[in-house]
Design a protein that fits this description.
Largest sheet: 4 strands, mixed
Order of helices and strands: HEHEEEEEEHEEEEH
Helix content: 10-25%
CATH topology of the largest domain: HSP40/DNAj peptide-binding domain
CATH architecture of the largest domain: Sandwich
Shape: elongated
CATH superfamily of the largest domain: Urease metallochaperone UreE, N-terminal domain
Strand order of the largest sheet: 6-7-11-10
Radius of gyration: 33 Å
Number of domains: 2
Number of helices: 4
CATH class of the largest domain: Mainly Beta
């Protein structure tokens, strides 16, 4: 009755080919890598391109867009670990850390810089030179009666809001510059001022 053929047909073993599957096994993707990438405020201002060593002599270049903030991640597709089974490599994720600056602190897209002014300058009004992140010094008028902690705004001298966004502002925070040493004349004048309540 052809019993062997019956069982071959029933279990899909016809033609001596064994069990058959309709789907091929998908190749396993390689693992993702995560690294930290430190950049300066100047590099946030202009954007930058970094070369990263991945080990085994491998290097990869990455473009960091202007205006990026700490904690943001950049994804480089196919730059992670190779697949152990011939599949596609994983991805590389770079977490951005913006390094502290010796002069400027960041508040969103604005920058803040401490600006020392003499007591007489605050009281009478004066003009000070404020440094900018791009290496300039801009003159700003301090109004008479200026208070320590007050901020003078320099429009468009902050950080960009993304690669093509407008720049924020630079805020010059006023601080009283107290001299460490005084001449005899300065000390005498200050003592006279102190008698008047200043």
């Amino acid at each position: 009755m052809g019993g062997a053929g019956f069982f071959d047909d029933l279990f899909g073993m016809g033609g001596g080919q064994g069990f058959r599957t309709s789907h091929r096994a998908q190749p396993v993707k390689g693992g993702d890598l995560s690294l930290e990438l430190s950049i300066t405020l100047e590099e946030v201002l202009h954007g930058t391109e970094k070369t990263i060593a991945l080990g085994h002599g491998d290097k990869v270049s990455v473009k960091v867009p202007a205006g990026i903030e700490s904690g943001k991640k950049l994804r480089l597709a196919g730059k992670g670990s190779p697949s152990p089974m011939g599949g596609p490599p994983g991805d590389l994720y770079l977490t951005i850390t913006v390094l502290p600056h010796r002069l400027f602190t960041r508040e969103g897209n604005n920058l803040v810089v401490e600006t020392e002014v003499s007591y007489s300058g605050l009281a009478l009004g004066t003009e000070v030179a404020v440094p900018t992140l791009d290496g300039k010094h801009l003159k700003v008028k301090v109004p008479a009666g200026g208070q320590p902690g007050a901020k003078l705004r320099l429009k468009g001298q902050g950080l960009p809001a993304g690669p093509k966004g407008p720049r924020g502002d630079l805020l010059a925070r006023l601080a009283v510059g107290v001299p460490k040493t005084l001449t005899d004349e300065q000390e005498k004048l200050l003592r006279e001022l102190a008698k008047t309540g200043l």
